[in-house]
Specification:
309 residues, 7-stranded mixed beta sheet, alpha/beta, 2 domains, binds S-adenosylmethionine
Length: 309
């Protein structure tokens, strides 16, 4: 699969934010695209501007595969794709003042109020932008939804960005699938350009260290089944243990868990393996999640529950 050449798995790195110079094998200005879809813009822009390092975020695996093919066909080299929510990725994977430009083209508008937390541009995202962009660094939004662009402009101005637009873009958008689709339908396209003003700050929550808990007794599948349903919720997040599985020899227990940190959701496995007279509770290597507070709390809580505390 072509995408494998471009894929970066940031959750597997010990140290976050990522050392992008090491990831790319060279230091260069960083550009980020959130929601790259089938990758038309990334393929074209990264070949046109070869002296930049390009990072794309997507939540759809199909898009990652399609974009990988486009990038390979275009001969793109300095691009990395991450299957990660771009709001989380931008905040957690880039140090302050390290990104030159962020692009967002035709984000899903999520017009219903009850879905507002799924929109990419919201005050938390703007705070992240103000922290990770270099002084004067830019954010470009292109959308067919005028109200989305207008609201984005308000958030950005509120955070001290210099904003131009939204202005109608009669031609010359990102050249992406959605641009082509909306232009075929005759919809107006809107562009908004913002440049960072004062530096912002943001709270990063993911850390590199793998949490683990040692417990003083051996564990069987029955013990694992007893922690199914274990859950905690607090203002910043929550976790729940969903299912328990055992290895054929009964020595290893696997727990499927779900965690959310401020709306960033992850599914993963916690494994309980024999360790001398006792057992070790840790994240399973097959589904390494970002080590967020909710993930770490889930491992600690499973350890405590199995220990009988
Ligand atoms: C309407 S499509 C636009 C795709 C592409 N930019 C284009 O112009 O053709 C929106 C894309 O954003 C992706 N997406 C939605 N929310 C995202 C998020 N939080 N982080 C990264 N990608 C996201 C979706 O999977 C989808 O591919």
């Amino acid at each position: 699969m072509d995408a494998a050449r471009y894929l970066v798995r940031p959750e597997r790195w010990e140290g976050l934010p990522l050392p992008w110079g090491e990831v790319f094998g060279r230091e260069a200005p960083l550009a980020v695209e959130i929601g790259f879809g089938n990758g038309e813009f990334l393929a074209e822009a990264s070949v046109r501007q070869r002296d930049w390092n390009w990072v794309g975020f997507e939540t759809s695996l199909t898009c990652v595969a399609k974009a990988g093919r486009k990038l390979a066909l275009a001969g793109a080299r300095h691009v990395r794709l991450a299957l990660v929510d771009g709001r989380f990725g931008l905040r957690e994977l880039f140090p302050d003042e390290s990104v030159h430009q962020v692009f967002l083209h035709f984000p899903c508008p999520w017009p219903k109020r009850s879905h507002a937390d799924r929109r990419v541009v919201e005050p938390g995202f703007v705070q992240t932008l103000a922290a990770v962009l270099v002084p004067g660094g830019g954010f470009r939004l292109v959308t067919d939804v005028f109200s989305y662009a207008e609201e984005a402009g308000e958030h950005l101005r509120g955070a001290g960005f210099r904003v131009e637009g939204p202005a109608e873009l009669p031609e010359g958008g990102p050249g992406s699938r959605y641009e082509a689709k909306w232009r075929r339908q005759g919809r107006p396209i809107w562009a908004l350009q913002a440049a960072r003003g004062p530096k912002g700050s943001t709270l990063r929550i993911a850390e590199g260290a793998m949490p683990h808990v040692r417990i003083g007794r051996s564990i069987a599948l029955e013990d694992g089944r007893r922690v199914v349903g274990l859950k905690e919720a607090w203002p910043g997040g929550a976790f729940v243990v969903k299912e328990a599985y055992g290895s054929p020899d009964g020595r290893v227990v696997l727990l499927r868990a779900f965690a959310t940190d401020g709306g960033f959701e992850q599914q993963y496995f916690i494994t309980v393996v024999p360790d001398g007279e006792g057992a070790l509770v840790k994240l399973d290597g097959a589904t390494v999640p970002f080590r967020t507070p909710a993930v770490k709390r889930s491992v600690a809580a499973v350890g405590a529950a199995l220990e009988g505390r």
